[in-house]
Amino acid sequence: MTRLKLFTYFFITACAYLGHAQTSISGTITDVSNAPITGAYIELDTSTKQYTATNSDGNFNFSKVPNGIYNLTISHLGFKTITNQITVNKNSTVFNSVLNTDLLNLHTVVLTGSFSPKTQLESSTSVSTLNTQAIKQTIPQGTASLLQNIPGTFIDASAGEVFTKIYTRGVSAAAEDDTGWYYVSLQEDDLPVSLVQHSYYGPDLFHRVDLMTSSVEALRGGSASVTAMNAPGGVYNFISKHRTSEVLTGEVQLQTGIQGEGNAYYRADAVLGGSLGNHWFFNAGGHYRHDDGARNTDFTFSKGGQFKFNLTKVNSRGYFKLYGKYLNDYTNRYNGVAATNWEDPEAAFGQDFNSTALLMPSYDASIPDGRYLDEGKTNAFNPANGVHAKDFAVGLDLFQNLDNNWSIRNNMKFSTKNANWQTSISNAFLSLSDFTTYYLPSNGNPFPAGQIIFRNAQTGTEMARIDNSPIFAGNSFEYLSDGRLPNDAVMGTSTWYKDNDADEFMQQLTLNKKWDKHNLSFGFATGLSNTSVFTQGSFAFSTYDNNPTMLQVTLENPSSPVVYLSDEQGVSNYGGLFFTNSRAEIAQIATFVNDIWSITDKLQLDLGLRYESIYHKGSNDRSTPFTQDGGLDGNENTIYDNNILAPTGEQDEFNFNYNYLSYSAGLNYKLTDDTSLFGRYSKGNKAPEMNYYFNNFANVPINQAGEVQEINQVELGLKSTLKDFSFTSTLFWSELKNIGISNFEFDGDTSSIFYTPIQFNSSQTLGLEWETIYNPFQYFTFRFNGVIQNPKATEWQVYDAAGSVDVADDSIIDFSGNRLPFNPKLLFNLSAEFQKDKVSSFIKWKYTGKREGNVANAFQLAAYSVFDAGLGYQINKNLSARLIASNLFNSDGLANFLGANSFGANANGSTQEYIKNNPDASFVVVPILPRSTMLTLNYMF
Questions:
Q1: Which of 46, 36, 117 is nearest to 79 (CA)?
Q2: Taking Cα atoms as reference points, which of 156, 165, 154 lies closest to residue 204?
Q3: N or C end of the chain, less CB within 10 A?
Q4: Degrees, nearest 5: CA angle 41-317-597
Q5: Residues 6+ apart with CB under 8 A from 743
Q6: Mean pLDDT confidence for 118-142
Q7: Which positions make up the signal peptide (predicted)?
Q8: How far is Cα 599 from Cα 605, in angstroms, rounded to an integer?
């Protein structure tokens, strides 16, 4: 009896064990060349949906999996996703798989530009993807520099990491000044980096690329009209590493390099991710860098970094994600370089297109704050600080599948931002025989005439002594000593102090319902921003040469007291050139609906509507020069503080609401499983940005709202992926209407800066963009993408202020029918890549065609080519090394044109008549960045 009981006990126990038997699933994921794929995303479709990722050997493992039948999905950017059904009924299951290359990621699901994510082949949009490999082939010179790899995208990254310009398909006009991301949205994880743009305040200030970036999705035009906040020109979405893995994985990257004429670069990146248990996963990482700059300055050009993280809880219906970012970063931006010879520009005044920065050197000044003169407050100023950008952001992203084929996603983010600019604006040639040189120190209050002494502000050594009296008789100044100033001139520059703050909240709620042949999405998006800006500009004396030296300047006439035109640091006309003190509240509210209707198995209709309401409320302070005998300090012999602009106490308020409906309709016809044809029409709108209020209404009422620009776009495209060849090609037409244009000008008689009255214009662009990849052999890959286009300024007028605030001699010039400036007719990237065993290499050719330098079509920027190259070696399974060079042959291509080389000039002032009358005049161009080489070590585990 005892034995029977014992047998029964073991039998029941065994049955119970078998009823709950658990096993493990493991395997190795490789590519077609049998190389392991690191970071492949593995999803086991169970009641709790388990996730993991492959390690550096391509291995993965699930433990404690109950016996049963499951779907195992394996995906990785750059490879075709596969799903296999597996049966688990033993102690361990081994599943090895080979992923086939998805050459253009056409079988990859994209999130950007759609409320219901689909593969690129199924989408009726023009989307390109950059994966981790493409990101690592680029020297980290900023967000815009990376996006040069996107087909059809024009990039001007000549200023450095920030103050960049980006646009597509000729939708560019309002992005040509200092709001270079005007029509497009820079996003991180599906939400904008910033809601606000205005002069010297764009989203690139608060965005850096590092190892936490897993991929980039770039949408050009099209559905951006209905899927993005006030950004009909496109969306550039940087997606952070967020994949879940049961094992701890990470990567450390160290970089060092040389830029330009031997300027050093050092950087460290790191990322770490893994499981915290109970279906909680984390990813965290960031970078720190020290960059002496691509051009020659006497200070560190960039330093700082960021930290990002996300914490994800996965359940059977979806996920909950908490994410955040802390950015604390200093960088700067380059101005232009002087040139002569309108037909074939050459660097002038001893400058060099590759090495000259022409920025003020580092010095510490203390400039009275015009807002608080009674309290004696000052602003510390040092050009070495450049722009100090700080951004703290935290967000929540929730996705859940509901019953009856419903799902919900709500992504929200709060951020607080500050950008403090301390840099120089303008670096124009000011002759010692020019009245402006002596008027600017105090706006002529009083005008210094006689013996002017220039001393090195750092050492106190006299550099030159002149008599400027002869200029009143129309003659040249005279030197009174052996000392000379370089080029007989000073640099027309200003201390550019800006302090910008913004507290922002943004969210997007999307509900999705699938039924029958419809996939319906609807919801609403909200963006709230409370922003302020203070701008103050003072004239500064420095030499006009490759390495500017600050000048302390005095008037020392015999038998007269010494009059100080500048302070000890060389700063003059304290706060007298610029003054802006403004604040605004912005509310963007949009509701949208989108339906993807599968008319047949091969034909889909994608129809979206978006109603957007944007509310702007704020005010600008009026200002007037501070008047007191002897200036702020009461000393008649210090004229540099005689003209400080200060608030009058009056404010000009604005309170405007912009409402508009945008829509987009697309068709996608699937010719085969690997080929599709699509077409789309989009009607979009662009509400004014804050620069409309902050720039155009100095000391005048803001009586009217800005114009909403209208954007019409038509596109027709073909996408196909074959075994060794893939391509997309899109024929497009775009029209931009109600473009408000205002020029930044300087009145030499009153020494005042002003913006001309706005003129409203329109443009059209017809073009073809393409993206191809060819893999003829296992180890070789060729890529070719670009755009051919014909951009036209169909209706275009420019206000000519004739160099003064006085309107009596003003006129309007008509340039209708001219070619749209800065848009090349031809732009392409061609590259070849090799990878075999442990060795990899690539070479890229980037071609930017001829562009008009202004709407007058009077000056052309020549076409230029840039070559990048790289060589990599896998030292062992964890450690790899790469050597990369950008602008390998040190091309001196010109990216931008800023007009005549005079203080306050602009590009539109260089008309054909001006050039004809001034054939030997110098002008200002902005060259592309010079050669950089970088050595990178990566350790993955």
A1: 36
A2: 165
A3: N
A4: 85
A5: 755, 756, 798, 799, 801, 906, 908, 909
A6: 88
A7: 1-21
A8: 7
Say whether pLDDT at 105 is over 90. no
Query: How far, rounded to the nearest angstrom, does the alpha carbon of residue 100 sit from its chain's CA centroid?
Result: 33
Q: How confident is the model at residue 750 (pLDDT cuts 50, 70, 90)?
A: low
Structure tokens given for 810: 């003003």
CA distance 155 to 157: 6
Nearest-CA neighbor of 134 among 935, 831, 845? 831
pLDDT digits (tens, 9 = 90+) for 615-667: 999 999 999 999 888 999 999 999 999 999 999 999 999 999 999 999 999 99
Cβ-contact 747, 803 below 8 angstroms: yes
- CB under 8 Å to 378, separation ≥6 — which residues? 366, 367, 368, 369
Q: Is 458 exposed, middle or buried (0-12, 13-18, 19+ CB in 10 A)?
A: middle
Domains and CATH numbers, the chain: 14-98 (2.60.40.10), 109-240 (2.170.130.10), 249-493+527-940 (2.40.170.20)
Query: How far is CA 109 from each of CA 12, 615, 729, rounded to the nearest angstrom?
Result: 48, 35, 19
Mean pLDDT of the chain: 91
Give the span between the Cα atoms of 145 and 460, in whole angstroms.
Answer: 42
Residues 489 and 464: their CA atoms lie apart, in Å, by 11
Beta bridge partners of 202: none
Euclidean distance between CA atoms 106 and 129, whole angstroms: 9
How far, in Å, CA of 891 to CA of 180, rounded?
A: 24
Which whole-number Å values give the CA distances from 469 to 352, 526, 902, in the listed order? 34, 62, 22
Residue 105 neighbours by CB distance under 10 Å: 26
pLDDT tens-place string over residues 313-369? 998 889 999 999 999 999 999 999 999 999 999 999 999 999 999 999 999 999 999
Burial environment of residue 482 by CB neighbours within 10 A (0 to 12, 13 to 18, 19 or more)? exposed
Supply φ then ψ for residue 776, to 5 degrees.
-70, -30
CA–CA separation, 214 vs 595, rounded Å? 29
Coil/strand/helix, residue 240: strand
Q: How far apart are CA 226 and CA 608, in angstroms?
A: 6
Q: Which residue, 486, 498, 180, 176, is CA-closest to 358?
A: 486
Q: Write down the residue that tokens 């040469």 correspond to.
A: 545
Q: Would you tell me how many other CB atoms lie within 10 Å of the CB of residue 178? A: 19
d(CA 15, CA 843): 63
Do 353 and 340 contact (CB within 8 A), yes or no?
no
What letter does residue 879 receive in the DSSP assignment? E
Burial 82-100 (b: 16+ CB within 10 A, else e): eeeeeebeeeebebebebe
Quick one: 119 exposed, middle or buried, by C-beta within 10 A (0-12, 13-18, 19+)? middle
Beta strands, E only, 67-183: 68-75, 82-88, 92-94, 97-98, 109-110, 118-119, 127-130, 153-156, 165-168
CA distance 600 to 584: 50
Q: In angstroms, how far is CA 855 from the centroid of its own chain? A: 24
Amino acid present at 860? Q
Is the Cα dihedral 801, 807, 811, 816 positive or negative? positive
CA 472 to chain centroid: 48
Residue 567 pLDDT exceeds 70: yes
- β-partners of residue 489 are 431
Write down the pTM of the prediction: 0.90
Which H or E element spans position 804? none
Nearest to 271 by CA among 35, 38, 29: 38
Query: If you ran DSSP here, which 8-state letter would residue 748 be given?
Result: T
CA distance 747 to 566: 21
Q: Rg (Cα) of the chain, in Å, rounded?
A: 31
Q: What is the pLDDT of residue 7?
A: 47
Contacting residues for 56 by C-beta, under 8 A, at least 6 apart = 36, 38, 249, 877, 878, 940, 941
